[in-house]
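Researcher: Let's do a round of design. I'm pasting the structure tokens now; please hold your answer until I've finished.
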């Protein structure tokens, strides 16, 4: 059961984990297709994977009903001092947390194989990339990591004998006794799930869940929580942002990075087909951006991932045709419904629902059934290279220069379709106060308004007050080369509860206005909350939206905004002395502008 690796730190760590977790076997992953097929054949044999007749090399998985989303309540930033984790993170003292988790890890891989998965976030060998090694007892995780990250022996070659990596330990927390039959989705009960981060030693320990961001540790754990804390120390940025390239009819390129909370349409925007003539949109990433200041003083972004782990429900040929075309083959589906002819289905995929499916819990489902056929957080894992509009520069190690930052959320009221920040500091204020109605990407109530600064509340690996300061510092460094900042809300509703804006491909109209602002082609109208498009400047040719709706969509109601001030004050008070004074000043200025 011994495996040999050249890297000394890795070799010691594998030994230590094996002694603690006591797997039956150890397997070193090489990232090949042969290996992927081998893992899938194991998953087929155990009954976890269901092959899809309609999609080559694609499989459906059904999770345990208790293991369907990220578990923010069980996610910890474990720093020596509680203050370093800050008020937005759960905290347990590292020594105590390690003690608790060590007792859970003890013997937790009995009856299972321990997979050692060397991976790179970012193109292998790129100066911006970071190497991680995930140890997991889940072949489902191995397959997903193959798609979402660059797994392979080349990573080990780069590590050499002394290279450093981020250790990511994962166990589903379901040892098998001698002769015990496995279940379809093994995991531990909610109260023993832990998604733990030790940013001071760049270490991740995850226990008890097999789902998405809880288990694919390159994604939220490494590329956001650990990376954000490394980025703060090293002077760069790790953000919960999509990256896209927009090209104007004249051939000018604009690069946009946008932060929205989970399940607020990042994937849809990243792959959008503009509805305005002559404009082209290409996708570089749909979830995470790592950004560094380049030699020319501009901010350059790469996507550290190599796949999409997208929310399936609501994805259709109407809402996101490019995502649909990315899903034709080589895809892992989780918690979607299974149709009678061997395909997947989810709510919103087609105008008419199938007459019968097997739902995500494995039960018969017919239209009108009281619950959804697919879980609202059902997911697809698909290689980014399969996206028909993937940008040719998506793996360029140098990244792309960002012109525009967008923040936003899901707000049925108050927030207009688009506004532009008055300055960098005001933009940071907009990011720091961003609020959104909660979605099913996290376990918990759906539809409550929560402040989700920079869409990073669940993902910032250190004190968020310091994170705000880091944004201010980056702006100071970038000076006149800083991207312009905008705030959008695609989700505003009329008083009778209908969406006011068509969204999706028509969001290109809003992006076009931003580009025109960058090029100083149009002026903007002042409002207390930021700059708004002047009447007639937002291109709405060819869409059916009444003047009255347009007015409501763009309106800024002073009374409604004044009512937000105490909530913002409350939110800011969380950060105590860590709140940068420059943000307090922005709040005072906003109050003054509201009168
Ligand atoms: C995601 C999330 O999976 O943000 O991207 O939850
Ligand atoms: Mn996300």
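Researcher: That's everything. Go ahead.
Model: Designed sequence:
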């Amino acid at each position: 059961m011994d495996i040999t690796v050249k890297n000394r730190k890795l070799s010691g760590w594998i030994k230590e984990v094996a002694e603690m977790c006591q797997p039956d076997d150890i397997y070193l992953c090489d990232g090949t297709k042969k290996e992927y097929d081998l893992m899938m054949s194991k998953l087929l044999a155990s009954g976890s994977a269901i092959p899809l007749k309609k999609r080559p090399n694609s499989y459906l998985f059904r999770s345990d009903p208790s293991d369907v989303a990220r578990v923010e309540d069980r996610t910890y930033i474990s720093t020596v001092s509680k203050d370093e984790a800050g008020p937005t993170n759960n905290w347990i003292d590292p020594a105590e947390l390690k003690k608790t988790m060590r007792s859970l890890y003890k013997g937790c891989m009995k009856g299972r194989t321990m997979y050692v998965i060397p991976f790179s976030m970012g193109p292998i060998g790129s100066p911006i990339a970071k190497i991680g090694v995930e140890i997991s007892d889940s072949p489902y995780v191995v397959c997903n990591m193959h798609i979402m990250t660059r797994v392979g022996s080349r990573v080990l070659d780069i590590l050499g004998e002394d290279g450093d990596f981020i250790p990511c330990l994962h166990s589903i927390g379901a040892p098998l006794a001698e002769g015990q039959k496995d279940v379809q989705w093994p995991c531990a009960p909610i109260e023993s799930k832990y998604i733990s981060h030790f940013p001071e030693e760049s270490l991740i320990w995850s226990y008890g869940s097999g789902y998405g961001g809880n288990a694919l540790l390159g994604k939220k754990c490494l590329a956001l929580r650990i990376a954000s804390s490394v980025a703060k120390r090293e002077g760069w940025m790790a953000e919960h942002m999509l990256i896209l390239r927009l090209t104007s009819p004249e051939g000018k390129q604009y690069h946009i990075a946008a932060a929205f909370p989970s399940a607020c349409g990042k994937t849809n925007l990243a792959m959008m087909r503009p509805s305005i003539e002559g404009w082209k949109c290409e996708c570089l990433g749909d979830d995470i951006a790592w950004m560094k200041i380049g030699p020319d003083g501009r901010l350059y972004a790469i996507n550290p991932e190599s796949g999409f782990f997208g929310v399936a429900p609501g994805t259709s040929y109407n809402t996101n045709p490019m995502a649909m075309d990315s899903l034709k083959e080589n895809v892992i589906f989780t918690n979607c419904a299974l149709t009678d002819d061997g395909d997947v289905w989810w709510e919103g995929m087609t105008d008419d629902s199938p007459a019968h499916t097997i739902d995500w819990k494995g039960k018969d489902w017919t239209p009108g059934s009281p619950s959804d056929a697919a879980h609202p957080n059902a997911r697809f894992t698909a290689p980014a290279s399969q996206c028909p509009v993937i940008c040719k520069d998506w793996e360029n190690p140098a990244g792309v220069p960002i012109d525009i930052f967008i923040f936003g959320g899901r707000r049925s009221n108050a927030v207009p379709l688009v506004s532009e920040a008055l300055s960098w500091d005001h933009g940071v204020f907009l990011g720091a106060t961003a609020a959104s109605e909660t979605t099913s990407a996290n376990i918990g109530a759906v539809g409550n308004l929560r402040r989700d600064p920079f869409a990073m509340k669940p993902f910032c690996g250190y004190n968020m007050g310091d994170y705000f300061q880091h944004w201010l510092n980056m702006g100071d460094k970038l000076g006149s080369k800083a991207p312009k900042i905008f705030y959008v809300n695609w989700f505003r509703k009329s008083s009778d509860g209908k969406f006011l804006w068509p969204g999706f491909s028509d969001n290109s109209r809003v992006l076009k206005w931003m580009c025109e602002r960058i090029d100083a082609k149009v002026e903007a109208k002042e409002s207390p909350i930021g700059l708004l498009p002047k009447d007639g400047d937002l291109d709405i040719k060819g869409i059916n939206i009444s003047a009255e709706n347009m007015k409501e969509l763009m309106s800024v109601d002073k009374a409604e905004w004044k009512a937000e001030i105490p909530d913002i004050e409350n939110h800011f008070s969380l950060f105590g002395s860590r709140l940068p004074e420059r943000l307090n000043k922005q709040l005072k200025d906003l109050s003054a502008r509201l009168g």
